[in-house]
Amino acid sequence: MGLLSYTIKLAIAVLPMVDALGGCTSNQRKSWSSLTDDEKSEFIQAELCLMNSVPQLFTEWAENRYDEIIYTHVIQASVIHNVGAFLPWHRLYVRAHEILLQNECGYSGAQPYWDELADVDNMTASVIFDNEVGFGGDSDGSCISTGPFANYTSHVNADGVGMSDCITRNFRAETFEDGASQDQIDTCLDTGNYDDANDCYSGSLHNAGHGGIGGKMGNVVASPTDPIFFLHHANLDRLWWNWQLEDLDTRLTEIGGDNYPNAQLLQIEGIEYPGAEITDYFGDDGNVTTLNHNLWMVGLISNYTIGDVMDLQGNINPNVNIAHSETETLANLTAAEHVFNKDTFKTIMAVFEIVCTIKMPLQMAIPVMIAMHQKENIRPALSL
Ligand SMILES: *[C@@H]1O[C@H](CO)[C@@H](O)[C@H](O)[C@H]1NC(C)=O
Ligand SMILES: *[C@@H]1O[C@H](CO)[C@@H](O)[C@H](O)[C@H]1NC(C)=O
Ligand SMILES: *[C@@H]1O[C@H](CO)[C@@H](O)[C@H](O)[C@H]1NC(C)=O
Ligand SMILES: *[C@@H]1O[C@H](CO)[C@@H](O)[C@H](O)[C@H]1NC(C)=O
Ligand SMILES: CC(=O)N[C@H]1CO[C@H](CO)[C@@H](O)[C@@H]1O
């Protein structure tokens, strides 16, 4: 019933899009600052539309469609960070968000990105934080009270589902300004293989937006609560694409890296890597990330493989079988909830805190974190 009418609604919405998005130029992403005020307003209205639309997947606890978008990241946070699939998973996630804006809220543009380098000298002055045609500004750690998203209430966070929460921010301009610099971009662009590139892009350039804005954005689990997340990740994705363009023949198929979270992180907490009921769906036939790796969007859109998303100019559209994959996804959700392990999240967040506050590269932060943990049996404060 509900599912069926959703399917019909989606099919009607999707069919014209298949043509409309067939070529890359028709879905050209632009930087936020290059949009006209009308274009910015249209984007904001579409985002508010998702935040005010009824949920379609998790009606027991979700109260709006955007809750389900956040949940897709929350539930998988321990297997989409510090793994080979980091860049491709987030590429598809940004695309899923873009598809929902377009198909469910009539948004006619493409997902804008935040050209962070352009704001590197003065983050707080960025037009992205405008209160009228932007996302609103800093809130020193409390719920934001300015801008169009001031009153957004979410119902999922790093502690689980069903509790009300809000968008918080806690600017650390210095973290942003160091992390998003031309030096960092050059360093990552110079890496010679996927593993090194994935590590590099997940470091400073990734932490710049998360740690610089702080609050929810600084929370490795619930960061998509702040819709700036998608502009930040669209930018990171663009930077990875620029890396791919340096040697496209090779880099359209170059993938690798572990498909399990950092072994040291798991060890500290005494957590076993999730069992076959979770890992089987990776489809890697081992513990190294491959092009066959399954990227799960929790029913927002169909599953895709990493191979499907390697070409940013490729054609990722929700296929007409979405109802099928959605049914399966819902049936399997209980098993998958296994992934949602709070202890792992807390450890990863603690490392993130070190990376963002002391501005230490991730590779160094992990051993420091372990040493602190062993020596004093304490963790750094978790709030960002
Ligand atoms: C950043 O921009 C703001 C607003 O324009 C200004 O007040 C502030 O002085 C600038 N900071 C720096 C370091 O330039
Ligand atoms: C938020 O709610 C307050 C109180 O209801 C209202 O005055 C304000 O206009 C709302 N802001 C937005 C951006 O919706
Ligand atoms: C990854 O798989 C290989 C081959 O099965 C195995 O030798 C290795 O121990 C595994 N590594 C981890 C960290 O599980
Ligand atoms: C999509 O991925 C999820 C999680 O990996 C899996 O449970 C589900 O069976 C997949 N659906 C399809 C149609 O492959
Ligand atoms: C991995 C897993 O649990 N897969 C199951 C998903 O749900 C379908 C339908 O119930 C089962 O057939 C799969 O075995």
Automatic annotation (TrEMBL):
The GO terms this record gives for MF are: metal ion binding; oxidoreductase activity
Keyword DNA-binding attributed: no
In terms of superkingdom, the source organism counts as: Eukaryota
Keyword Lipoprotein appears in the UniProt entry: no
What region holds the Tyrosinase copper-binding domain?
81-98, 226-237
The record ties this protein, via InterPro entries, to: Di-copper_centre_dom_sf, Tyrosinase/Hemocyanin, Tyrosinase_Cu-bd
- Which residues constitute the signal peptide according to the record? 1-20
Q: What keywords does the record list, in alphabetical order? A: Copper, Metal-binding, Signal
Task: Note the PANTHER family from the entry.
Answer: TYROSINASE FAMILY MEMBER, TYROSINASE-LIKE PROTEIN TYR-1-RELATED
According to UniProt, the name of this protein is: Tyrosinase copper-binding domain-containing protein
Query: What is this organism's lineage?
Result: Eukaryota, Fungi, Dikarya, Ascomycota, Pezizomycotina
